[in-house]
Amino acid sequence: MQHDRADGDAGREDSGLEAPGHRGTDALFRPVRSAGGGQHLGLQGIDTPAVTAQSFRTVQLHSNTRFYRFLLSVCELIFRSALIDSSTGAVRFCDFVRDERAMARVFEQFLFNFIKREVRGVTVKRDRIGWQAESTTDPMLQMLPSMNTDISVYGPGFRLIIDAKYYSNSVTFFREATKYHSGNLYQLMSYLNNARHDSADVIRGMLIYPRVDRTLRDSYVIQGSPVTIATVDLSRDWTKIHSEILDILNTDITTGNRAIRAASAG
Questions:
Q1: What are φ and ψ of residue 168, in 5° steps?
Q2: CA dihedral of 131, 134, 139, 142, whole degrees rounded to 10
């Protein structure tokens, strides 16, 4: 299989594991390698066009073939994590776990699909928030950057905007003081302040990070909007990860519902 790769991927760190069809196939689990080889032999005579990043977007799936969505996602992850040796043509897999941008996308997608699957009674989607702004020089506000949420959770009377972040450190250090990432908080507050004008719902915000060296669970009310900052420990057993995420979300959603009821009673 041929790969068209961008030059910018050349800087990624190599994990040393080579793809099937090149040196290093002994590193693959033997039954998987054997089964894969047998399948490949059965596909002789079928053309193998060059694969690009766009190739994965052209595949159309429907309800009867949705099973293949996961397999396509795995293939796309492998493709984006491959590095071609220009001198030998060998394909080697990169250590994408150390690529914060790649892991941020994985973490965001994981949370989005987790909430969609596991949290009942809510609607999960991605929103484009409009700027509450006016301009005589740019009346269509075309020069302002887009505000696209990672995750928006809609429930009865509330809207929770979640920004999923992936860093090697979930906090920063300034003059021996520990602080949250200011840019993350500024971005979330911009979302909340502008979204407040679009809806009568209670608007809440959440920053969520993978746990690195400490567990974080803080709640604030900033400029009138409830904000939660939390971490989830992805190094633990899946059942504990599952319970921790649900606890973070349910606590925030329950708190939001209490605020709605209190406002209604007042």
A1: -70, -20
A2: -30
Residue 3 or 113, more confident? 113
Burial tier of 49 (Cβ tally within 10 Å: 0-12, 13-18, 19+): exposed
Domain boundaries, the chain: 7-98, 100-265
Q: Which pLDDT value is given to residue 238? A: 93
| pLDDT, tens digit, 9 for 90 and up, residues 153-198 | 998 888 999 999 888 776 776 667 788 888 899 999 999 999 887 7
Nearest to 247 by CA among 263, 227, 262, 233: 233
Q: How many CB atoms lie within 10 A of CB 110?
A: 16
Contacts 24+ apart (CB under 8 A), 126-130: 126/150, 126/151, 126/152, 127/152, 127/161, 127/195, 129/191, 129/194, 129/195, 129/198, 130/194, 130/198
d(CA 4, CA 48): 13
Nearest to 93 by CA among 210, 3, 165, 33: 3
Gyration radius of the chain's alpha carbons: 23
Q: According to the model, what pLDDT value does residue 28 have?
A: 54
pLDDT classification of 243: cutoffs 50, 70, 90: very high
